[in-house]
Amino acid sequence: MKLSLVLSLALLGAVSAHQLDAGALEQEIPDEEGEEESGEPEPPCPTESEIVRMVVPGTGGRTYRYVFVSSCQTFRGAQRQCSRCYRGRLASIHSHAVNEKLRCTARTRTNRSDLWLGGKASWRFFWVRTHWMDNSVWNYSNWARGYPRSFWTRCVTMCTATGLWRCLNCGTRLPFVCEY
Question: What does the pLDDT look like over 14-23, one tens digit per residue?
Answer without folding.
Answer: 333 333 333 3
